[in-house]
Amino acid sequence: MELEEQDPTKLFLSLDNVLEILGNPTRRIILSKLSKVPLGASELAASFGTKISRQAIHSQLKMLTDSNIIESFGDDPRNIKYRIKSNLSLRINVSPDYYNIKYSVSEIDNFKENLGLKDIGCHVDFQKIKIPNEQLRFLGEKIREVEQNIAELEVERNSLLRNKECFIIELKKIMKDQYYSDIKKREQPNLEKEIFYTLFYNPTKYFKKINIDSLLDDMFFSEMGPIRRATNKVSIKYSLRDLSKLMDFMYEDEEDFFFFDI
User: Fold this and answer.
1) What was the pLDDT predicted at 11?
2) With a threshold of 0.70, does the pTM exceed it?
3) Any residues with CB less than 8 A from the CB of 43 and at least 6 apart, and which?
4) What whole-number distance in Å separates Cα of residue 130 and Cα of residue 162?
5) What is the pLDDT confidence band of residue 56, given thresholds at 50, 70 and 90?
6) H or E element that contains 174
7) What does the domain layout of the chain look like in residue ranges?
8) Percentage helix, strand, coil for the chain under 3-state DSSP, each rounded to 5
9) Distance linking the first and last C-alpha atoms of the chain
10) Residue 95: what are its φ and ψ, rounded to 5°?
11) Cα–Cα distance between 78 and 43 in angstroms, integer?
C-alpha cells in the first residue's frame, strides 16, 4: 500500500498538515521540548536564545494549538504552559522501486488516565523496590531494553524492506522481458504498468477480489472529482481486463476482477 492511514473520519489532521507542521525546524524543537517538560512561551523563547523572537514562538505555539497537537493549561494568565495533547506517528519510505507513507494521529482523551506499569506487566517487580534511586535504576534499565528492542525491530524492518524492493525489481525485469511488448500496444500502457505494480506493492490488500475503489485511492485518483474518478474507474477496468488476458493469476468474472484467487 502506498499510503496507509487510520480511518479518515477519525483524522483531525491531514497528512499534508502533518508534513507542513513537522517540516518546520522550530516547531520540531518545540515539540521535542514539550514531550519532556510542559513549558511556557517565555521559557521556550529563552531556550532558543536570540535565534528566535518571542513573537515567533507565540506564532508557532498558536499553529500547534490550532492543529490540536498541543494545548495550553494553567489558571494564571501570566504562567500559561503548553503540553502535547495528541499522539502522532509518521513513517516514510521512498526508493527507486518502493514508496510508502504510514501515519496516524489521535487525541489523548484524559491526561489523568495515563498508561501505567500494571498495563505492561511490570508493576509487581517495581513495587518490590522501595528505594527511589533503585526505582530509577529499574526504570532506566527497562527503557534501555525497550530502545534495544526497537533498534532490533528497525534492523529487521529495513531488511524486510530490502527484500521487498528486491522482489519488486525482479517483477519489473519480468514485466519488461515478457510482457512489455504486448502492453506497449495498449491505449494506456503506463496505466497498466502502474496498476500491476500497485497490486504487487501490497498483494495482501488485493488478494482474491480486487477492490477497484481501493485501487483508485492507492493510485491517487480520489482527489480528481467525481467525474474524473468515474472516468478513471472505467479506464482501470479496461486495463485490468487487458492484464487478465496476459497473466493467468488475474481473471475477470462478471465484471469483478480477481488476483491470485486460483
Assistant:
1) 73
2) yes
3) none
4) 47
5) very high
6) helix 132-174
7) 3-112, 186-259
8) 60, 15, 25
9) 22
10) -145, 170
11) 12
